[in-house]
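Ligand-bound model needed. heme C.
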Amino acid sequence: MKVSLLFTLFMLAAATLILSCSKTPSGKEVFNSEFCPACHYFRGMGKPEGIDLSRVGERRSPEWIREHIINPKRHDPNIGMPGHAHLSGAEVDALVRMLTSAMPSASERETR
Ligand code: HEC
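Prediction:
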């Protein structure tokens, strides 16, 4: 009896962990799974010759970037970037957080 209760608690904890992981994807995961690297470069990820997003957060507001990911045609009707309206709010948030995060300092970059 005691063992099965422990087992149930363990399974519940494991399920909670898996669910919370799948609900909060990292920006990196979304960036890679949405093919952003096919056209973009971001701080060591993606195509080196792609459009560089490493410092986009210094020029654009989080709101602008959010809109741009969901529907880039709103900013440029002829843009060669697909919309990403199928992404969940959490997925777009993760991307925006990553894109607007501070650049690693020069000393951190040198050690890589
Ligand atoms: C098929 C190619 C393609 C894909 C895939 C793509 N983009 Fe783009 N993206 C572009 C182009 C083209 C531009 C416009 C660049 C310009 O005008 O300088 C752009 C612009 C942007 C900008 C604005 C850059 C700036 O400096 O103003 C952001 C932010 C951006 N993309 C994010 C993303 C993210 C995040 C993804 C994945 C979810 C993605 N893009 C997928 C082609 C693409």
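The chain has a mean pLDDT of 90.
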